[in-house]
Amino acid sequence: MKENKNLQGHLMAIITILIWGTTFISTKILLRDFTPVTILFIRFIIGYIALFLFYPRALKLNDKKQEIIFALAGLCGVTLYFLLENIALTYSFASNIGVIISVAPFFTYLFANKLLRKEGLQKSFFIGFLLAMIGIAFISFNGSSVFKLNPMGDFLGILAALVWAVYSILTKKLGEYGYNIVQTTRRIFFYGLVFMIPAVILLPFNIEVGTLIKPINLLNLFYLGFGASAICFVSWNWSIKVLGAVKTSVYIYLVPVITVITSAFILKEQITWLSALGTLLTLMGLILSERKQKKPKDETNLILFKQSKNSVS
Question: Which residue ranges run through the membrane (predicted)?
Fold first, then answer.
């Protein structure tokens, strides 16, 4: 039963990443008519409404102190992460930020060990992480870009990765409360939208009816709001609840891989040997990171071995 649930958790994580890996196309199209903050706000408004219509029942907390965790999750996973990522892209190359954001699973791993103390350190994770980073670098730069450090942009990218790692830990904590996953995600969205209001006021924000009702804009906003936000955040949070923060986070490595493949099919971009090699290395890194550390003996055999050793001596 547990194995079936774990398999479902992995499948949910893969489906989520398949959608998240294609969102750059929708965002790229929408940026022709909307500012980044406008897209972000509309996206999560749609996501919140979709979750409310699907499961309108109000969430009643068992402990008022849990409200702080929900607020922090909304601040980190919705507001700060997306704002930091979007602002980072205005300072640095997309390829730089793509590689930096992919470090999020490493930070999640460290935080999980420090804060949750439930997921032990494994050598296979670090080897897999190194392989995935090399692969992602090959995919991102692809021989056409030059890696140039930009202190402000790259620093914001690192902050975004850290914030997402914190969000993963907070989501794991929320999963332990036993609430309905749709209600949990909707409450996270609520706080994300609340914390987003200052950004809407201070940063460029534009909504015009004419551009909003364009079929192509409506389609892409719906895709981002309903698919990439409402459905994907629910499935991602559920995967974290089942698999843990670390095991779920390593699927982030696949985002550049999905991006390369969808670019080839939709944007007709060529897949080079470097991006193909990077894809292979990234997949190998993912497999290694998910691999469990082998134990020399199970508990029963180890106890019997010690007992026989003591009896001989």
Answer: 12-31, 37-55, 67-84, 90-112, 124-143, 149-167, 188-207, 219-238, 250-267, 273-289
